[in-house]
Amino acid sequence: PRQLVDEVDGRDMGTPDAWIKRDPSLIRLTGRHPFNCEPPLKDLVDAGFITPTKIHFVRNHGKVPKIKWEDHRVTVKGLVNNPRVFTMDEIVSLPSHELPVTFPCAGNRRKEENMVKKGLGFSWGAAAHATSVWKGVRLSTLLKECGVKTKEQGGKFVCFRGPKKELPKGKDGSYGTSIAIDRAMQDNWDVILAYEQNGKPLAPDHGFPLRIIIPGFIGGRMVKWLQHIEVTSKESDNHFHYYDNRVLPNEVTAERANEEDWWHNPDFIINDINIQSAIRSPEHKEIVTPTEGTYTVKGYAFAGGGRKVIRCEVSLDEGRTWTLAKIKRGEAEWYKQHGSPEQQRNYDSRGKHWCWVHWSIDLEKKRLCGAKELRCRAWDQDHNTQPLHIAWNVMGMLNNSSYRLRIHETKTESGEKGFWFEHPCLAGPQPGGWMVPEEEVRPQALYASLGGVDPRKIPDTKFTVAEIEARNKEQKGVWVAIDGLVFDASSVLDEQPPKGVVITIGGTTYAQEFAGLPKPREVALTNKFQGGKLPCKGKLSK
Amino acid sequence: PRQLVDEVDGRDMGTPDAWIKRDPSLIRLTGRHPFNCEPPLKDLVDAGFITPTKIHFVRNHGKVPKIKWEDHRVTVKGLVNNPRVFTMDEIVSLPSHELPVTFPCAGNRRKEENMVKKGLGFSWGAAAHATSVWKGVRLSTLLKECGVKTKEQGGKFVCFRGPKKELPKGKDGSYGTSIAIDRAMQDNWDVILAYEQNGKPLAPDHGFPLRIIIPGFIGGRMVKWLQHIEVTSKESDNHFHYYDNRVLPNEVTAERANEEDWWHNPDFIINDINIQSAIRSPEHKEIVTPTEGTYTVKGYAFAGGGRKVIRCEVSLDEGRTWTLAKIKRGEAEWYKQHGSPEQQRNYDSRGKHWCWVHWSIDLEKKRLCGAKELRCRAWDQDHNTQPLHIAWNVMGMLNNSSYRLRIHETKTESGEKGFWFEHPCLAGPQPGGWMVPEEEVRPQALYASLGGVDPRKIPDTKFTVAEIEARNKEQKGVWVAIDGLVFDASSVLDEQPPKGVVITIGGTTYAQEFAGLPKPREVALTNKFQGGKLPCKGKLSK
To answer: What sequence ranges are listed for the domain Moybdenum cofactor oxidoreductase dimerisation (chains A, B) (predicted)?
Structure first.
């Protein structure tokens, strides 16, 4: 595999992904494995319009498939006149299309939601968006090659999936989804099957050798390791098309979602992402002194559906009044500098905006320091903006509440009066931030969520990750660390959750850790754990 | 003209529109003339999915042009190979397309914004949306007839305008705008030139004989009395394309907008409308008793850009938690009942939603009566929702803050304990509602806005509308009633503002009344009035 960095990170040793070289600066959100990560927010924004591949966030449900370019095949079937199987070389030989596209995670800023109330997913911070230059073949080109049938002939959706048996969920273990045929076939939607990211073949974590890129959509629909394309009259029936990437209404709990089957309600699917923004500067714990001059507040913003970001604003009075920031449009610049004349012309007239913007505003330091909080929000071209409050939903999806820093008085190292900025929380297991996790607010809720583990009865014994790993390797049972506590899960797990791996995330909710586990284990462990059946052996040593 | 009702409304007598028969139930928002109106909210919602033409809101900038079907011509020119002039009969002879489309006013619910702070526009209530079945020819059909040039050949926009010299603004006095060529030419955007509304030729107020319908867009771009279509490489340069239908940022006042020319910033144009909703039941002043059983809360919701409304919700706790309402999708039903097989198939697969929905939820009366307020909000398919607070802007556009009723204890007529519901405010000059107008909160601001008329120095003399009208008819001068005060405007108006008409709106801001006036009078009156130069003669008798 192409090297993103020089060597394999120590944390990947002993996992099925030990062959992939990953940047050690990435913050791991679900322990060591499977690999789900985002970069520090400041690194992401400071890298500029195009995100270096090595710090592009990653969402893996399981181990990364080891695929060889020459062995890979892409099947196109269903409502096409000439079903075909393509080699990668055949795909590359078709006319190519290259363009910058922002790749947004539907779970971006889920940690804030999890702080409000525990949900089903792990704790993304605010750096699960990234922008790459993707190169590939238009999906429409491939489908036309195969004689795609018209809508009149029944071809209404295009379904995609990765390798079978990749994951222990769904009927064939593949990750898949679908899009409407209009989106697939109309050129100004720019849907491509990408084999290059930022000028190089895809990295294994990003779908080598082929992934679909659907500009404007959430990343969860941009299937990696793409193997199978089928034109159908109905939406995909893939497990992940229904049981992931949905915003269920506020009142729907995990239990109700399953019992009343909210998953198949077509209204709650996420495709194009809502309007998003976050603040990069000041960063968490940064100190500003109330001296003369200005401080440059900075951040990013993005909207799905090709909608332009038209306003980025900050507020120093809890959202009562807002001041306009300057917007830097990297996408327009990219087309000017790198686009062919045709691409430049198309960019001007296609009316679609596929990329994030960076924004900045110079504020008087004295004014900034005189405030209690600093917020940002953005607006899309249809004048939708971000709400002031989190709209909690059980999957913790699409949190686009106005991003909010608190400002506190402090002293600088030299004893001067200063003010430090506190972000709401930090990605994954990192402590810090002004949001108070639910368990600190509601000990009763914590008690219930720990499944009957009375916090007063947790043994004081401490175990290190190494000790737990050693036990497991010696097959003395299957112990897992969940939310800082160590449990003997032997009664419900007959093998170690991915071999040699200990779930050691820490973080604030146990649900975070389960999200990365294959389904059968997840169910077993969650149910038993919730029932207080797993013996608690002690605490995790940090 | 086709009769909407049996006779001309008395209020139209003596105005240039005295030949048009209008429904007397319509609430006039800018006095008698020009005609700007909306129906009572309950009538609008109770009429169901399709709004009867006679209660469809109307926005007229001036008098309605008297056009004869056989005389009307539509010119198509610019970047087309065969410029042409069409008669109405020729347009009707082309293949037709008929479909239901919701027609939303960008100023819907502006009165709430005006209550927060006076803006530039008059006070729409929450009934400036309506849905009709429109029939016409696809714009793409007409343009193809004329050999429209491709984008590569420079054809990027389609400009439209109504009759020249219709209005005293802009270089030719026409009302016009433009749309992107993709929107015009792609069939699934359904842009049509409509000559029928709800099965009959257009009414004069709605653009007889031809208007453009751009599904998803605000009504302000759906040019009436359409005369001229031009394919261009640039956006329309029409006055109204820039100086109307914009959302300027919060901090931009009318003065800054002009001085710094915010009007030509391409980011602030309104095309597709943001997500909207309002509550019809309980209506203003309705009383509910806290007895057993449920009360059905009802309303409408709509989103632009073809986006589906996926959630309608109500909150009884100031927006902290929300409960899902049931959605009735009239559009899907319409296609089932009235669509051809082709239309039905297209509706299923086009992925566009052009119509509002009606929603309802049965709430326990006791729970409803136990709350302090009742709010609603809706969500679009990209998971954008309505903010809790008004994002004030100088034109008072696109107010989509969550619609909010206050609940107060009272007694029913029979002496029982009951609770009455208070809407934020009522359309146009109607008094009532919990929102406190700015002038009651800030007497200083009022003093400034009254242009130097010291409230303590207003004569106690009272005049009725009839008395003022009589004076004006006898040519004793030109008196006008503005915001409850009577002024002698003879020094700035050399004729009565539209003959025989007294501006008698009352309402909460004088700006309301001026918005509907032709420009020269508006400027003269506003400037003089602001300078405190108009002699104040007394108060308007109610």
So the answer is: 269-409
CB contact under 8 A, A272 and B311: no
Question: Helix, strand or coil for residue A238?
Answer: coil
Average pLDDT over residues B415-421: 95
Per-residue pLDDT, averaged over B175-191, amounts to 94
CA distance B184 to B179: 7
Which phi and psi (to 5°) does residue B467 adopt?
-65, -40
Structure ipTM over 0.90, yes or no: no
Q: What is the pLDDT of residues A180-192, one digit of tens each?
A: 999 999 988 999 9
CATH architecture label of B73-268? Alpha-Beta Complex (3.90)
Annotation says A376 is catalytic: no
In this complex, do A382 and B322 lie within 8 Å of one another by their Cβ atoms? no
- Quick check: do B73-268 and B277-437 share a fold? no
- Residue B437 confidence class, pLDDT cut points 50, 70, 90: low
Residues ≥6 apart with Cβ < 8 Å to A528: A451, A489, A491, A492, A534
B270 touches chain A (CB under 8 A): yes
Query: pLDDT tens across A415-432, in order?
Result: 999 999 999 999 998 888
> How many other C-beta atoms lie within 10 A of the C-beta of residue A494?
10
The radius of gyration of chain A from alpha carbons, rounded to an integer in Å, stands at 24
Domain boundary assignment for chain A = 10-59, 73-246, 276-440, 445-540
| Contact status, residue A30 vs residue A513, Cβ threshold 8 Å | yes
Is A369 in the active site?
A: no
Residue B541: per-residue pLDDT: 76
Compute how many other C-beta atoms are within 10 angstroms of the C-beta atom of residue B80. Answer: 20
- For CA atoms B108, B113, B114, B115, give the dihedral sign: positive
Q: Is A114 a catalytic residue?
A: no
Class of domain B277-437: mainly beta
Whether the bond between B282 and the residue before it is cis, its omega within 30 degrees of 0, is: yes
State phi, psi for A41 to the nearest 5 degrees.
Answer: -55, -40
CATH 3.10.120 holds for B445-540 = yes
Q: What one-character-per-residue DSSP string does A478-506 give?
A: -EEEETTEEEE-TTT-SS-STTT------
- Measured between alpha carbons, how far is B17 from A155 in angstroms, rounded to an integer? 52
Q: Name residues 324-343 of chain A within 8 A of B (Cβ).
A: 324
Q: With beta carbons less than 8 A apart as the criterion, state whether A221 and A304 touch.
A: no
Q: What does each C-alpha distance from A465 to A25, A146, A431, A507, B323 come to in angstroms?
A: 20, 52, 19, 15, 44
Residue with tokens 């907008």: B257
CA distances from A193 to A86, A143, A151, B292 (A): 12, 11, 22, 59
List A residues 413-472 in contact with B (Cβ-Cβ < 8 A). Answer: none
Distance, in Å, from the CA atom of A422 to the CA atom of A457, rounded to the nearest integer, reads 34
Q: Which amino acid is at B539?
A: K
CATH assignment of A73-246? 3.90.420.10
Residue A217 in contact with partner chain B when CB distance is under 8 A: no
Q: Output the CA–CA distances (angstroms, integers) from residue B280 to A162, B192, B283, B397, in the order listed.
A: 48, 31, 6, 21
Is residue B41 predicted with pLDDT exceeding 70?
yes
User: Are B38 and B127 within 8 A, CB to CB?
Assistant: yes
Calculate the CA dihedral of residues A78, A80, A81, A86 and round it to 10 degrees: -90
* Amino acid present at A129: H
Fold of A276-440: Immunoglobulin-like (2.60.40)
